[in-house]
Amino acid sequence: MSRDENHSVPEDHTLSSAVRALILGFFAIVLAVVSVSFAIHHMREGFESEYRKQFNLQLKALATNAMLVIDGDEIEADPVAAGMKYPAIINLMLPSPSENSFSQIDYGIFACYGQGTLAILHISDDQNLVYIETAINKWNNSNPEPYEIETKEKNSLLIPILNSQGVIVGLFEITGSHSSLRQYGDVLEGKLLLAVIVSALLGLLLFSVQYFVPKVLTLLRKREVNEE
Questions:
Q1: Which of 49-58, 141-150, 200-209 is predicted with the least confidence, judged by mean pLDDT?
Q2: β-strand 117-123 against 154-162: which pairing, if any?
Q3: Which of 44, 101, 129, 196 has the fewest C-beta atoms under 10 angstroms from its C-beta?
Q4: Same structural domain for residues 171 and 211?
Q5: Do 26 and 76 fall within a single domain?
Q6: How far apart are CA 85 and CA 162, in angstroms?
Q7: Three-state helix/strand/coil letters over the chain
Q8: Residues 6+ away with beta carbon under 8 Å from 66
Q9: CA distances from 41 to 14, 36, 75, 121, 184 (A)
């Protein structure tokens, strides 16, 4: 075996070791990014789930207080006057709106005629309410109970209003939307994941400079010496 062949064996071994180390480092970083991404998403889903749960409890408390105020006999006797009276009271129960809030609460009061035909007495925001798209028999039936609708972006309560004889004479809906929470979560999760990826790439680059590049330079110097 010649002198050049003797030197090429350790040189090739050193180079292949450096390449293997770089590849292993890359896969380790990819695994770390995936793990951190999963952890971030899991924490976010847990937070949003708890937020929706507490928000739903708040809506139910507001609905309970509102129904203590609303009188079905008054709505039946004079719906116009009731449509002016109750919003002034219910508005005082609602939390003050804030630019930093992730949720919005809207409500509607309706008089009910015939087979469930509704007349609007007051609505705060028609776009967020769900009474139009909800089947009448969900809340107007022989066993009138509050009907609850829950999605990832909304919580709604539709509560039949009864007169003193137990007849349904109206409907109260309160809906809380929290779509901005989902949007904020998407943005925040994206920023955190981007920060993790950038940090991982910088770590890989630093590893390459400290470990891989010096070995390559050493091999090049050895080859120059051998050629001389």
A1: 200-209
A2: unpaired
A3: 101
A4: no
A5: no
A6: 17
A7: CCHHHHHHHHHHHHHHHHHHHHHHHHHHHHHHHHHHHHHHHHHHHHHHHHHHHHHHHHHHHHHHHHHHHCCHHHHHHCHHHHHHHHHHHHHHHCCCCCCCCCCEEEEEEEEEECCCEEEEEEECCCCCCCCCCCCHHHCCCCCCCCEEEECCCEEEEEEEEECCCCCEEEEEEEEEECHHHHHHHHHHHHHHHHHHHHHHHHHHHHHHHHHHHHHHHHHHHHHHHHHC
A8: 86, 90, 93, 107, 172, 174
A9: 41, 9, 48, 43, 13
CATH of the domain at 104: 3.30.450
In a domain, 11, yes or no: yes
Same domain, 75 and 172: yes
163 and 198, same domain (yes or no): no
Whether 105 maps to a domain, the answer reads yes
- 87 and 111 share a domain? yes
Q: Which two tokens stand for residue 5?
A: 């062949």
- Tell me: the pLDDT tens digits for 117-142? 899 999 998 888 999 899 888 988 88
* Total domains, the chain: 2
- Show the domain range for 198: 3-43+183-227
Cα distance between residue 68 and residue 52, in whole Å? 24
| Cα–Cα distances in angstroms (integers) from residue 146 to residues 60, 149, 157, 164, in the given order | 10, 10, 6, 18
